[in-house]
Amino acid sequence: QVQLVESGGGLVQVGGSLRLSCAASGIIFSIYTMGWYRQAPGKERELVASITSGGSTNYADSVKGRFTISRDNAKNTVYLQMNSLKPEDTAVFYCHAERLRSSSTSVYWGRGTQVTVSS
Q1: Per-residue pLDDT averaged across 47-55, rounded?
Q2: E-only strand ranges, 3-85
Q3: What phi, psi does 85 have (nearest 5°)?
Q4: Which residues contact 65 (CB under 8 A, 6 or more apart)?
Q5: Residue 99 near residue 33 (C-beta atoms within 8 A)
Q6: Which residues pair with 117 in a beta bridge?
Q7: FRET partner for 74 with CA separation of 20 to 30 A, picked from 32, 52, 55, 106?
Q8: What confidence tens digit (pLDDT) does each residue in 8-25 have?
Q9: How large is the greatest C-alpha to C-alpha distance in the chain, in angstroms?
């Protein structure tokens, strides 16, 4: 059974930092592209950052220079370091795992962790 379990969310003041973690089990973690998505109230879920099995990263323009995604394949964990947080970063953050193959795609989601940035 595949599980993605997020942790590290919470309440933080504007300009503060948080580090999200996502521990994966039930998959061969090292071959998956891992990502963080977020969904704010009344808005669609959006990609925040992703990291491939080879370590290539991609960020939403709104978080470039403030957020850093990383992975530890030995711990089956992906991280999102969030600095200089803004009120508009308030959202539920979801961990995402994806493996693209020629014949199929495997996609898994975590349950989410709330991040609230107060002014």
Answers
A1: 97
A2: 3-7, 10-13, 18-25, 33-39, 46-51, 57-59, 67-72, 77-82
A3: -65, 145
A4: none
A5: yes
A6: 12
A7: 106
A8: 999 999 999 999 999 999
A9: 48
